[in-house]
Sequence to fold (336 residues):
Amino acid sequence: MIVELTSGPDIAAAKNLIKRNGLSFEEGFDELFGIHESDELVAVGARAGNILKMLIVEPSHQGGPLLGEMATALVSRGLDAGFESLFIYTKPEYVRTFEALNFTLLANQGRAALLEYGNGLRNWLAAKRSLVRTGMNGAVVMNCNPFTKGHLYLAESAARQVDNLYLFVVREDRSLFPFDVRFRLVQEGVRNISNVILLDTSRYIVSGATFPTYFLKQDDPVARIQMELDITLFSSRIAPFFGITRRFVGTEPNCKLTNSYNDTMKRLLPDYAIELVEIERKEALSGVISASRVRELMARNELAQLDDYVPASTLAFLASEAAEPIRRQLQFDMRR
Fold:
């Protein structure tokens, strides 16, 4: 019988089972479940939002129905919570096990694999079929926290080099500016670029907030694994659907993580016949334009300087009453 583990002793037993089998117990879950046999905890599994993780069965009980029962229970709870699809990251050697439980492989990086329960990716792509265009197609993926003249310059430069430019805005709300605001500012900012097709990334971009590490070794390069999964998913599933053969990025002089991501794309994209095109970052009189610089100026309430960094449509929002909560949050963060 599957039961939720909430007491201190039950959670301690789950930690022991997980660690005893070479995995790490990872905090940050909505629900933790277990299966007992003869009062012994023999299987556990957890759900964090739409991510299933820490599914483990005691070796003496493997090969039976316990893993399937646990996965089915977690999927059911996730669907009841309102998620259309559920995801699990696991070691590549377990891909077939989860495929037998009706999960679909989305990407395999070599050390980690991402699978989905449900038809989320298929449905998302089907809903975008009307946006498919023939010709030389390119892509830009942007977070835009917020949309700047640097983002606009990248979009304009990329659009001149292709017939159609797919501009993906990261949907996940890990940013100070909410997705609906970021998407609207991008939409307003690129409205005069006739060959830009604007859409969001849905859930199909690897998230630093949700990517679990419980099954990785302590010395595994987590950031690189995450980047490679993201790029593999984009290149193998999303790019072919839209006929994308070029991906555009801005050069990155400041952020080591973004620069590493660009280097990883240089290494992997040619395997999928996708060319990476780097475009030199646009600079203002005072230096490189970046969203972080815009947020800094907002925090200092130096709104008059923003004209050098953001398009008129973004500036209008940043100076509006609607942006007041964001300005207050930035000022609060700066004082801490």
Remarks:
- The first strand starts at residue 2 and ends at 4.
- The domain at 2-118 is CATH 3.40.630.30 (Aminopeptidase).
